[in-house]
Amino acid sequence: MAWTLKQVAQWCGGAVRQEFEDTAVTGFVYDSREVTPGVLFAALPGAQTDGHSYVEQAVDAGAAAVMVMKPQRDDLPQIVVEDTETAMGEVAAAYRRHVDPKVVGITGSVGKTTTKEMTAAVLETSFRTAKSRGNLNSNIGLPFAVMEMPEDTEIAVLEMGMNHFGEMARLSAIARPNISVVTNIGTAHIEYLGSRDGILQAKMEILQGMTKNDCLVLCGDEPLLWNLREQDDKHKKYYFGVENPQCDVVAQDVRQMDGGMSFRVVGMGHQFEIFIPVEGIHAVYDAMAALTVGILCGVKAERMQLALSHFRNTGMRQEITEHAGMTIIADCYNAGPESMEAELNVLGDYKTDGRRIAVLGDMLELGNRSWAEHYRIGRIAAKKADLIFAYGT
Q: Which of 15, 80, 191, 205 could form a disulfide with 367 if both were Cys (CB 3.0 to 4.6 A apart)?
C-alpha cells in the first residue's frame, strides 16, 4: 500500500509543500535503524535523544519523506507538524477507520504480550489477522502497530500499555477496540498510579474508545475486575477464570505436564481440552483470555486446540534453552512483582537433578512499595532457588 504526503498531512493537520504532495510513502518508522526504502521517518522528540538529529541518516537509508516539527532543507519531502507524536496518533486513527477491522485491545499489569500472541494465534486460524509487533504498546508504539496492518486485515490484535493516567484513553481513541481484554490488575507502575484501584481506573480508560455494542473480556479471579460486573451496563462483560466457577469460561482440571500445561475449557456452550507448551498457571490465564476471545469471534474449538498446542512465545519470554548441561529459562522483559513470582514458581516446579539458580534484576516503578515488593520476591526466591544472584540497586 502507499499513501501520498498530501493524504498523510490531511489526516494529521500537517503542512506539506505543493511540490511534495504527490510523494508516496509505503510505511512509517520512528527508529532510523529500521528505515527501508520508501518509508516516512517520524522525528520524535525524546528525553535522551531527538529524532530530528537522525533525519539525514534516515534519508541516506532510503526514507522517501520525513515528518518533523522543525523544517528541514528545502529539497527534502517533509510534513511539518506541531507535535510528531500527536500527529502519528492522528494518522493511525485515520488509518484504523480506513481499514475498519474488528480490533481486540489487550491490556493488564502482566501477561499482555503473551496474551496478545496467543489471541492472534487463535484468531489467525479463521481470519486475516494482524497483531502488534513485539511490544509496540505505548503512546509511540501503538500508532505504528496500527499502521503496520495490511489493508485487508479482518481482525487486529493490539497490545495497549500505559503507566500514567490519560494514556490509555489516548490509545483507546486511536485503536477503538471492539473487544477489550484486561488480563489482571497488579502493581506494575503503581509509583505513578498510587494504588491498585488507581491502576484499575487507568486501565478502564480503555472504555473511552469503545461503542455501546463493544464488549469486555475480564479475569474473574481478580476481585477488582469481578466487582465491575454490576457497573457500566453499556458494555457486555465476559469473564474467564480458573478459581471462580461463576466465570463465563472456566479452566478445569488444570495439570502441569512435561513441557506445558493441560486443562479443560468449559463455558459459553463449549467444553474441550487444551494443551499449551508453556509452563506455569499464569500461562493458563493468558490462554483463557485468548480462548474467550476466540469463542466470542466464532473460532472452532479444534482450530483453537491446534493453534495453542503449537504456540511459541516472542523472544525472552520464558525462552527455554539448553547450554553446556544447563537449562536456561530466559524471561527478561520489564519485571514486575506478579511476573517475577510467576517465573520463580516455574523455576521451583521445574524438574531437575541439579541446582536451581535465580538471576534477578530490579523491579522498577513501584514507588513506596518498592522495598516491600523486593523483600517479598526475595523470600519467594529463597524458597524456590538454591542460589540467588541479584543485580541492581
A: 191
Helices (H) and strands (E) in the chain, counts: 13, 19
pTM of the prediction?
Answer: 0.86
Domains of the chain are 3-82 (3.40.1390.10), 100-309 (3.40.1190.10), 319-390 (3.90.190.20)
The CA distance from 158 to 117, in Å, is 10
Helix-strand-coil split of the chain, %, nearest 5: 40, 20, 40
Task: Give the residue among 108, 65, 104, 126 at the shortest CA–CA distance from 285.
Answer: 108
Give, in degrees to the nearest 5, the angle at Cα 107 between 211 and 287. 110
Nearest to 384 by CA among 349, 359, 352: 349
Residue 289 · residue 303 · CB < 8 Å? no
C-alpha 65/C-alpha 73 separation (Å) is 12
pLDDT digits (tens, 9 = 90+) for 17-62: 999 999 999 999 999 999 999 999 999 987 788 999 999 999 999 9
Residue located via cell numbers 463493544: 214
Mean pLDDT of 268-297: 95
How far, in Å, CA of 122 to CA of 110, rounded?
Answer: 20
Strands (DSSP E) found in 188-325:
215-219, 236-241, 249-257, 260-267, 270-276, 319-323
DSSP string, 128-176: -EEE--TT--STTHHHHHHHTS-TT-SEEEEE---SSTTHHHHHHHHH-
Q: 244: phi > 0 → left, psi -120 to 50 → alpha, else beta; which? A: beta
Q: Which amino acid is at 212?
A: K
Please give the radius of gyration of the chain, using alpha carbons only, rounded to the nearest integer. Answer: 22
